[in-house]
Specification:
By secondary structure, the chain is an alpha+beta fold. It has one domain (about 15-170). It has 2 helices and 8 strands. It has helices at about 15-65, 145-155, and strands spanning about 85, 90, 95-100, 105-110, 115-120, 135-140, 160, 170. An 8-stranded antiparallel sheet has the order 1-2-3-4-5-6-8-7, with helices on one face. A hairpin with a 3-residue loop joins strand 3 and strand 4 (about 105-110). The chain is elongated and about 90 Å long.
């Protein structure tokens, strides 16, 4: 018969397991927000690349026809993975893209925070800056969206648009 008092049982104690679970929880709490920021930045970079492609299509159309397109059906570079939404705009997985009078291209994020996106102006319209430019815009009440625009732009030099008013912050992207 074995003597239990002299023999040590192998394994982890409950305290040791709780400490490991606590450490994993702390690491997950720190890593998850950083992961979400990286995912949002990646989605925004994808949207900006799409805006650049669509702006090329708008420029091609203007050069060929002498006027601004009224819908994406008139462009030669609309990706096949975009679907029309019935309002003259197209939707991707994460962003909605529209051609507006002016002309300008605009995109909005479809999920939270939803109050940010990108705008492309082919001229000095509204912004007072000559040339073709991309801007990231964010609702001033959405701090996370503003931080994302600031990160994408690579600077904190905000621009005020006379048409958007003080409710939105703008960053020059390129």
């Amino acid at each position: 018969m074995k003597n239990l008092s002299t023999e040590r049982l192998s394994g982890f104690t409950l305290i040791e397991l709780l400490v490991v679970v606590l450490i994993i929880g702390i690491l997950a709490a720190v890593a998850l927000p950083q992961y979400q920021k990286a995912v949002n930045k990646s989605r925004s970079a994808e949207a900006l690349a799409m805006m650049r492609s669509l702006s090329t299509g708008v420029e091609e159309y203007v050069l060929a026809n002498g006027q601004v397109p009224t819908s994406f059906d008139q462009l030669s570079v609309v990706p096949s993975n975009m679907t029309p939404d019935g309002s003259g705009c197209i939707k991707g997985t994460h962003f909605k893209y529209c051609i507006h009078n002016g002309p300008r291209l605009q995109s909005w994020y479809l999920r939270q925070p939803s109050n940010y996106g990108f705008i492309w102006y082919p001229s000095i319209q509204n912004m007072g800056v000559s040339g073709k430019h991309f801007y990231c815009f964010a609702d001033v009440s959405q701090k996370e969206a503003g931080e994302l625009c600031k990160s994408i732009a690579g600077h904190d030099n905000k621009i005020t648009s006379p048409t958007a008013g003080a409710s939105y912050q703008w960053w020059y992207v390129d």
